[in-house]
Amino acid sequence: MLSLLLACAPPSTVLPPGDLGQALVKGPKVLWEAQVGRMTWRSRMVQDGAVLLVPSNGDEWGTGPDARDGLWVLDGRKGSTELHLLVPETTPARERDVNGVLVTEAGWTVSTDQNGLLQWSRQGALNWHVEMGGDIEFPPSVWRSPEGLRVVGAVERASQLVTVDPETGESATLRVPNGFEKAFSQVAAGDLNGDGVQDLVIAGRHSHQLIALDGQSQRALWQHEGHIYQASPQIVDVDGDGAPEVISAFADTVLISEGATGKPKLVYKTPGARYATVHAFTWWPQAQCLIIPRSRVDASVSCVSLEGELIWSLPILSQRISAAPTLADVDGDGTNEAIVATEGGRVLAVNAQGELLWAWTAPDAIEAPVFAGDLRGDGRTTLVVASHDGWVRALKTPGVAGGVQ
Asked: Exposure check for the chain: N or C terminus, fewer CB within 10 A?
C-alpha cells in the first residue's frame, strides 16, 4: 500500500475564482491561422527547421476517413500549407488519423490508427510503412537500444511494442511481460539503472499497470499495479542527483518513483472534490515543482513541490484540462511561464509565483498542448494553439525562445 503525502500547507498564492478572461494583461495577437484538422490531447505539434508539423486525428471518428486526417506541414512564418500527407488506405473504411509525429534525420515518423508506424521524407515521399493491425494511439518515441537508434510505439490492442530502424524501416516486436494488456501511453525511454542502455516505461490500461522494462533484456525492472494510468509516464531527474525518476499519474494522483527500483518517492493526491482526473503534468525545473492540471470537478492548475507541498493553485471554473502545460518565456524576462490550455477554449500564461499574466480565448475547445518555439527566426517565442474547430492559430509574444526552464 502506497502512503499518500497530502498537501497540508496553505498555498502561498491562490487567485480567486472568477472569469479568467479578465486577466491582468491583454493576451497576445494572432500572427496567422491555418485550417488543418482536429488534434486531441494525445498529440503534439513539432517544429522541424522552418516548418511546423501538425498531426490531425480528424473529427469523424467511427464513421470512416476524414478529409483532414493526416500530417499537415505548415510554413512557420506564414502558416501556409507546404504539404498535406495522408496515411495510405489499406481498406476504404479505415481511419487515417495521425496521432503523433517524431522528427529524425531520415524524416517524419508518425503513429496512426489501424496502420501502425510509417515515415515520410521531408519531400513527402513514403520511406516505409510498418502495419501492426492495431492503433498506436500516442506519438512514437526515440529509443537508443543495444542495437542502435530505434523508433518505438505501443500497440493499443496488444501486449507489445513495435520498434523500427528509422533509416531502413526494419521492424521488430517487443512483448511486454507480466500480463500487460492494452497499452495506453507514449513510451518513455531513459537509462533508469545506470547501465548505459535506455530502458522503457509504459502504462497499461486494462491490466492497470505501470511497468519499467530493462533495455538490455526487455524484462521487467519493476512495476506498479492496481490503478488505471491515464497519463503518459515521463523520465526526469527531478531532484538533480544524477539518478532519474519516473513521473506518472492515475485518477486524481501523481506518483514520482525512483527510476532504478520503482520505489515511491512522492504520491500526491490532488485535494478537492472526488472524480477529478489528472490527464497530464509538467515538471518545471525553474520553479522546482510539478505543474498539475486537474480536470472535471474543481478544475485547477497547481504547483506542487517534491515534498508534496502545494505552493500555489489557480482555480479554473468549468474548464476541463486535458493538455500538459507548456513551458516558455512569453513576457521577455528570460524565464519561463507555464502556458495552460483548457477545453473551454482558454490559453493562460502563469508565472512561477502562480500569478496569471494574461488569458487568450480560442473559438473552440483546446485539447492538445500549446506549441512554443521560434518559428520566425527572430529569437522570439511564438505560441501555436490547435482548437476543435480544426484551425491552428499562431500567437506573437515578446518572449525569448528557449528561455530558462
From this structure: N
The grid coordinates listed for 366 are: 483546446
With helix as H, strand as E and coil as C, how does 37-70 read? CCCCCCCCCEEECCEEEEEECCCCCCCCCCCCCE
Q: Is-contact 180 209, C-beta < 8 A?
A: yes
What Rg do the C-alpha atoms of the chain give, in angstroms? 20
Residue type, 122: R
Nearest residue to 46 (alpha-carbon basis) of 370, 327, 404: 370
Global pTM reads: 0.90
Residue 313 and residue 225: Cα distance in Å, rounded? Answer: 29
Beta bridge partners of 52: 47, 74
CA distance 336 to 325: 12
pLDDT in tens, 242-297: 999 999 998 888 999 999 999 999 999 887 656 567 888 999 998 899 999 877 65
